[in-house]
Specification:
With 410 residues, the protein is mostly helical. It has a single domain, classed as Growth Hormone, Chain: A (Up-down Bundle). The protein contains 18 helices and 2 strands. Strands 1-2 form a two-stranded parallel ribbon. Helix 1 runs antiparallel to helix 9, helix 3 packs antiparallel against helix 17 and helix 6 runs antiparallel to helix 9. The longest helix is centred in the N-terminal third of the chain and has 29 residues. The protein is globular, with a radius of gyration of 20 Å. The relative contact order is 0.18.
Amino acid sequence: MSAFLPQSEPANPAIQPLKGAQFYLQLGLFLTIRTIMNSGFRMVYPFLPFIARGLGVTEADVTAGITLRAALGLASPLIGSVSDSWGRKRAMMVGLLIFVASMLLIFFSPTYPALIASLVLTSLSKIMFDTSVYAYVGDRVDYRQRGLASGIVEFGWSGAFLLGIPLAGFLFANVGWSAPFPCFGLIAVGAFILLWRTLPNDNPAKNSIRPSIMRGFSIVRKEPAALAILAVAFLTTASNETVNVIFGSWMENSFALKVAALGLASTIIGVAELFGEGFVAGLVDRLGKRRSLGIGLIAYAISCLLLPVLGFRLEGALVGLFLFFLTFEFMIVSSLPLMTEMVPSARATLMALGAAAHSLGRMTGSVIGPKLYESGINANAVFASILTVVALVLLILFVKERSQPLVDGT
């Protein structure tokens, strides 16, 4: 039987809701910062063979670093939930500083051990920043607008493939494999200054009563719907990573694409994700968060199966990747506003647990994906679709959206 979400709690009057120009200004800042951070995080996927050759190591060596990066996400509940005690702004700033350090590390030491350290630090920075951003949105944006807010913030994911990855491809091809890292690090320094000057200070001791980490875990553990949505997060991310970790090799091996062409393919993927996020921003608040997530899961499962069907020619493979990433992005972003309101008294803790579920999924997919690829892209596609169907069943059985959840308690 379905598990109903807990009733929304009244917002603390000390926290001012985002409205008007401030709504778009702050969300636009989050979008910009996440574009930078996601560029540094995601560029390893399409250019994995190129990075491996630049370092003189195997692709499996770089994939092992990706797996280790994903493994750090298992500590997300401890890392991401710090904003419940530190405050949202402070946690965001620390996360962004860690990202700067992860990028500049490669400038000072362009070696394989430094790459592994950089991958791990990048993951740490994203966990801390992303969970704090969504906790901040949950605190300050009415639930009826959170689909729009989540869509705007998540434009930073597609923005990486539209802007950051083509820039990285240009630098990889014309300067060297290590060039994009310090570039993104220096841009992030400017973003840190904007964040520090723009975002209001929040003192958790004064603004709200927030739980300890263990208390937050206890609150989440008692909500079946929250546990189900965490399982959905794990399954869908494992599904995506099963394909994500091998698509660069697949495109290179099947169609002899070189680094510049892989940058173009990444732009197509970015456009797909942009459409997915745009659909979330425009439709999810109207359709309902749970219904949108269900639609996304069905469409994504179908797109997984279409990938090998369309992938006999380069044009078909690009169409398949477009549909694969469009439907995944719509599905995953639809889940975020739903997650922000499941346990309002421990928002950052649940978002951090969600990050852990995503990281565990990425780690699982990065291990399974290359092994499945030994049998061809078909094996990856079918396995990804099966995981998605299981996630859909969990959503239907255990999660139900309440009719009129509001953050102001009216």
